[in-house]
Structures are given as C-alpha cells and as structure tokens.
TrEMBL record:
<comment type="similarity">
    <text>Belongs to the binding-protein-dependent transport system permease family. OppBC subfamily.</text>
</comment>
<keyword id="KW-0571">Peptide transport</keyword>
<feature type="transmembrane region" description="Helical">
    <location>
        <begin position="280"/>
        <end position="300"/>
    </location>
</feature>
<dbReference type="InterPro" id="IPR050366">
    <property type="entry name" value="BP-dependent_transpt_permease"/>
</dbReference>
<feature type="transmembrane region" description="Helical">
    <location>
        <begin position="169"/>
        <end position="195"/>
    </location>
</feature>
<dbReference type="InterPro" id="IPR025966">
    <property type="entry name" value="OppC_N"/>
</dbReference>
<protein>
    <recommendedName>
        <fullName>Oligopeptide transport system permease protein OppC</fullName>
    </recommendedName>
</protein>
<dbReference type="GO" id="GO:0055085">
    <property type="term" value="P:transmembrane transport"/>
</dbReference>
<feature type="transmembrane region" description="Helical">
    <location>
        <begin position="215"/>
        <end position="240"/>
    </location>
</feature>
<keyword id="KW-0653">Protein transport</keyword>
<dbReference type="GO" id="GO:0015031">
    <property type="term" value="P:protein transport"/>
</dbReference>
<feature type="transmembrane region" description="Helical">
    <location>
        <begin position="24"/>
        <end position="41"/>
    </location>
</feature>
<keyword id="KW-1003">Cell membrane</keyword>
<dbReference type="GO" id="GO:0005886">
    <property type="term" value="C:plasma membrane"/>
</dbReference>
<keyword id="KW-0997">Cell inner membrane</keyword>
<feature type="transmembrane region" description="Helical">
    <location>
        <begin position="337"/>
        <end position="356"/>
    </location>
</feature>
<feature type="domain" description="ABC transmembrane type-1">
    <location>
        <begin position="167"/>
        <end position="356"/>
    </location>
</feature>
Length: 368
C-alpha cells in the first residue's frame, strides 16, 4: 500500500484562503464590485442624463414622490404662458392632464402650445375647443412625472445621475494614475535594487530630488501644459506618484537579490533584464497589490482636492470631488448636495482601505 502525498497549497492559494476568512475585506470586495457595476452601467440606466438641465426643478429636495408635486403644477402653467399674451381661466388638473382656458382679444394662435412644451413640467401640449371666432380656447397638456431620488443640484441636474457618472470618472482617474505609478515605480525600483552600487545610489538620488519638488506647483504646471485634458493630466499625476512605489520595490529587491533562486539564475547566465522580469517583479507582486489598493484612494482624494481648487474635472463632466465642492457651497440651503457625494466617497475609500488591510494580512509571510 503506497502513501499518496496530499497536494500542497501555493502561496497565492493560501493567501486567497486567508483573504476569504477576513469578513471586512470580503464585504469591501463585494461593495467595490457593486460600485464598479454602478460606475460602468449606472449612467446608462439612470433616469436622466448627467448633463440634462431642468430649470423648473433647481435644488429640489430628494423625494420618492414624482415631481412636479400638485401644488407646483398651476404656478408652472402660469409661468409657461406668461409671454403668450392671453388671459388664463381657472386651471384644472384631471388624471395627469392639465386644462387651461384661454381668452384673447385677438385670434389665438394654436402654436401657443409650444410655451407649455418648453417647460419641464408639461408634454404633449395642444390647443383644443377653439371657438369659431378663434378668441377663446382650451390648452391641454400632460403633466410629466420626473423622479429625483437624490434631488437636483444648483443647475437643476439630477444628483443621482451626477453621482453615478462621478463614480466612473473618479475610478477611471484612480485606476489610470495608479497603473502609471505602479508601472514606473515597479520597473524603476526593481532595476535600482537589482543593479545596486553607484547606479542604485544615483537612481535613488533622482527620487529624492523629485520628492523635494512642491507638488501643487507641479500640478498647476501640468494643467497649464496639458490644458483641461483630464486623462493626460492624471497620467502625468501618476508619473509623480510612483516615487513611494519605487522605494518599496527597491527594498524588496535588495532582499530578493540575495536569494538562492536569483543566484542560481545568475549562475546559469540569465541576463539581468530577464531576472528582473521573471524572478524579481513576480515576487514583489504581493506588496504591489497591497500598495495599489492604498494608492487608488490616495489618487481619488488627490483628484478631489484638485477639483475643489478648480484644477480637476471640468463641466459638464463631474467627479466626487467636484460634487463635494458644489455641495459645500450649498450646504445651508441644500445639505443633501453634500451628504450624498460625501457618503459615496466615504464608502468607496473605506472599502478600498479595508481591502488593502485584508490583502496585507493575507500576503504577510510572517503570518502563514
């Protein structure tokens, strides 16, 4: 009878098992997956366009009931027909249809219905019951039912649709800048740590010099240079945020280069570039993944800070930072404009940080 050895677990399988046991990290992963789905599909499924303006519904409060509410219909009809130069009779509402008696000393033009169609409140407007002399008639129109579950902003745009598109923009910016930062930082740090000696010393002195540059001033220069191209600007921001990653990977590489598998590869004549690509970088991925989950919220906060200063995303696009800046300006009379974007930002950052902590615990070799 032969003994069959049980198959061993790889380090990544062990780390995944440990991550699954971390409830906070798994809950954060589910929340991030939901946020990603909302960012990708939410703007298409939203009831309103993120740039669609409703002048009749500026700063309306969040409500589960449709707008306009009953007491808003008659004033809206009076405002819509104010320029029509006709006298209005008693306005009545029946089953979502508004009827407005009209009289005029001159013949009534049927095109007056356009005044109602131009309003956000009414649709399918028409002139009916026109008298034989054309001086009296009835205007009919359907009352639109618009839902603003999170209210509207200072320009009359649906806040829910704005938050959904802001999630897409903020996550795109965070992932784009993080990808650039990780690519540069990992390659630079691994190269410096592996080569060592004077080259390592020279490369790290360059990092120290870049650390000394005033960041905000550098970002202002980027805005002047790239204009309002958000993608190019945050690629450039990612090209600055790689400094921490370079130091972390360099430290990992200095310990890895003394390991037996690296020395064996050198003895077999494998080139330095191949050793970095096949052995050094793959063995630093655990640290890189952890840092990535912490760098994304850092970049999102940075984007929020720049947008708060007016240097980030520009209209009609928006981001969480832009929405928070607008909400801060209207905090007294429309607090929901600050509460909803700030809550979204808080949930996103907490989920990323909890996931990062869970990955750090799962990939920590001391706890295996």
């Amino acid at each position: 009878m032969t003994d069959t050895a049980a198959p061993g677990r790889s380090l990544w399988a062990t780390a995944l098992l440990r991550l699954r046991r971390n409830r906070a990290a798994m809950a954060s992963l589910v929340i991030l997956a939901l946020i990603a789905c909302l960012a990708i599909f939410g703007p298409r499924l939203a009831p309103h366009g993120y740039a669609e303006v409703y002048p009749e519904f500026v700063k309306v409060a969040p409500s589960l009931r449709p707008y306009p509410q009953e007491d808003q219909v008659i004033p809206a009809a009076e405002r819509a027909l104010k320029r029509a130069r006709v006298e209005l009779g008693e306005i009545t509402i029946d089953n979502g249809t508004v009827r407005i008696p009209l009289t005029s000393p001159r013949e009534i033009d049927p095109r007056l219905a356009r005044y109602l169609d131009r309003s956000d409140v009414f649709t399918e407007a028409r002139i009916v019951d026109l008298s034989p002399d054309g001086k009296s008639a009835v205007a009919e129109a359907r009352v639109q039912q618009l839902y603003f579950l999170m209210g509207t902003d200072a320009n009359g745009r649906d806040l829910l649709s704005r938050i959904l598109i802001s999630l897409r923009i903020s996550l795109t910016i965070g992932l784009l800048a993080t990808a650039v930062a990780l690519t540069i930082g990992v390659v630079y740090g691994a190269t410096a740590g592996f080569l060592g000696g004077r080259i390592d010393n020279l490369m790290m002195r360059v990092v120290d010099i870049l650390y000394s540059l005033p960041f905000v001033f550098f970002v202002i220069l980027l805005v002047v240079f790239f204009g309002r191209n958000v993608v190019l600007m945050f690629i450039a921001v990612g090209a600055v945020e790689w400094l921490d990653m370079a130091r972390i990977v360099r430290g990992q590489t200095l310990s890895l280069r003394r390991r037996e598998f690296v020395q064996a590869a050198e003895a077999m004549g494998v080139s330095g570039g191949a050793i970095i690509r096949r052995h050094i970088i793959p063995n630093t991925l655990g640290t890189v993944i952890i840092y990535m989950t912490l760098l994304i919220p850092k970049v999102i906060l940075l984007e929020s800070f720049l947008s708060f200063l007016g240097l980030g995303v520009q209209e009609p696009l928006t981001s969480l930072g832009v929405l928070i800046a607008e909400g801060a300006k209207n905090m007294r009379n429309a607090p929901y404009m600050l509460i909803y974007p700030a809550a979204t930002m808080t949930v996103l950052l907490f989920a990323l940080n909890f996931l990062g902590d869970g990955l750090r615990d799962a990939l920590d070799p001391k706890d295996r």
